[in-house]
Amino acid sequence: QVQLEESGGGLVQAGGSLRLSCAASGRMSSVYRMAWFRQAPGKERDFVARIGWSDGDINYADSVKGRFTISRDNAKNTVYLQMNSLKPEDTAVYYCVARTIPNQYNYWGQGTQVTVSS
């Protein structure tokens, strides 16, 4: 079992920045990838960014490349998402997720709301 708790969401004006944190606990030895997804009102959940827990391999959705940065602190079991140059279309609930099995993110946090005003 892996438990995930997000923090750092809030209200920010367009062009501003926020940093999300995801504190993970439990069987971290089984985790090989962590990621952020988001879900805007009335839309499906979309991939934002992911990072390999051991190798640090990183990938981003095209919509956030150059603006968002994912990072990890293995000693603290924490993943971060630094979000800069925020746009109203970034408004969503952001979820931290973990993968311990192939082809499926099988652990999800409760989510944290990010609202970007124009």
Sequence stretches where pLDDT stays below 50 over 5 or more residues: none
Indicate the structural class.
mainly beta
Our estimate of the beta-strand percent is over 45%
Rg computed from alpha carbons, rounded to a whole number of angstroms: 13 Å
Mean model confidence by pLDDT: 96
Biggest β-sheet description: 7 strands, mixed
The end-to-end distance, rounded to whole angstroms, is 40 Å
Name the helix and strand elements from N-terminus to C-terminus, one letter apiece.
Answer: EEEEEEEEEEE
In percent, how helical is the residue content?
A: under 10%
The count of strands amounts to 11
Shape: globular
Query: Number of helix segments?
Result: 0
Q: What keywords describe this structure?
A:
118 residues; mainly beta; seven-stranded mixed sheet; four-stranded antiparallel sheet; 11 strands; 55% strand
Structural summary, described in words:
This protein has 118 residues and is mainly beta. Helix content is 0%, strand content 55%. The strands form two sheets. Strands 2, 4, 5, 6, 9, 10 and 11 form a seven-stranded mixed beta sheet that branches. A hairpin with a 5-residue loop joins strand 4 and strand 5. It is globular, with a radius of gyration of 13 Å. The mean pLDDT is 96.
